[in-house]
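Input:
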Amino acid sequence: MIKDHKTDAGLPGRLIVVEGIDGSGKSTQIYLLKRWLEIEGYKAFFSEWNSADVVRSAIKRGKKKLLLTPLTFSLIHAIDFSDRYEKQILPLLQAGYIVLCDRYIYTAFARDTTRGCDPEWVRKLYSFAVVPDITFYFDIEVSIAVERILKSRPNLKYHEAGMDLNLSPDPVVSFKIFQQMISEKYKALTERYNFQTIDAALDIEEQQSRVRSKVEEKIKLSDFRFNSMRLYHAE
Amino acid sequence: MPNKRFYGEGIPGVDPEQLKGMLIVVEGADCSGRTTQVELLRDHLERAGHAVENVGLKRSALISPELEQVKDTKEISPRTMSLFYATDYADQLENKIIPALQAGFIVVADRYIYTLMARDIVRGENPEWLQSLYGIALIPDIVFFLKIKPERLVERTFTKYGMFSHWESGMDLHISREWYHCFIGYQRRMNVQFSLISTKYNFRIVNGNRSVKLISTEICREVDNFIRQRG
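Output:
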């Protein structure tokens, strides 16, 4: 039997994940969380969706030349995740770090199934990944998120706008429908995967304060100080 | 005529019943004579007027350059490698195999998902994970497996390349410090895995220790029989 995915892995590290649609502000929030942990002297490490070197050129070419289908879109992002998972996320958890992930397997669950992949197949594909200690879900009205994105990036990319789903010939219209679909997928995952929902319409500071409180509540931070830092201060 | 099916969920937007052609797979180790047999089968089928499409590993437009690169640098884990090959397979499935079958071609695959599964199981992957992953795969009409003794492969490898290769010797498994023992040990483990899955995936085991001509006659005859029975 393939389990839902690994639970109770007994790893010394802690895994914190942020999820949400584009424009939900999750990257800002995890950046601020990371800065706080670093400045306070904790062992924190950040990993971002779609950032592995080994597959970057293929993803870029696949997107540019429109070679990607729902299936290969899913698989190529699984390569990216697997590479970062095996080289960084898992070893860092084993080494006792607080690992911060901007998007995790739930992004694939939401996006790939929106594109038509079988939900059970996608879930099993990522069954090797450990369950996060905390998953923050940044909940936002799609219209607000879309407005934020369009202000900073008026020219949407093809896949970002979900143009491959033939939702609309107008990228902006397509983007709105696509984000709405993903948002609904996320909401359906909330309970099963125990997401901590943060109201992403609140002020940045207020959201960050809620995020930090939750982290302090769930993780005994004093266990995650750098050993070398202690030595450094002792000298 | 039997309808085509997928092992599992299949792929978004494809109805396997629309696939008219035939999918033939030839499996076997490097230097087992597999590629020669694929070429001879193609000649045989084209002589009879069938349109043939060839597929194989590392031939996808999407990912083969990166796959070659990671094979060289060896800087990724077995699971990531497995996903590279799965992506390579999926791209060829969607862009070559399925369109060719829709058009009534005979697709001859020089290796298929079974090599990919066996390689990863030998490296410790959970077989169920692989089985789920390859739920996307189309079930072939015939799978030939060229079974050959590792000692025989050694001779053919030296004749062809003059030396062992890293991956075909499973050097990443550190079976021994000596290359010869790595090669033999690895090929034995692969044979064990192939044997374990051979019933499940309905392999036709072909004795690969014989001459090219004898093997080819056997394969071509079986394919002809299949075509005749199918009508």
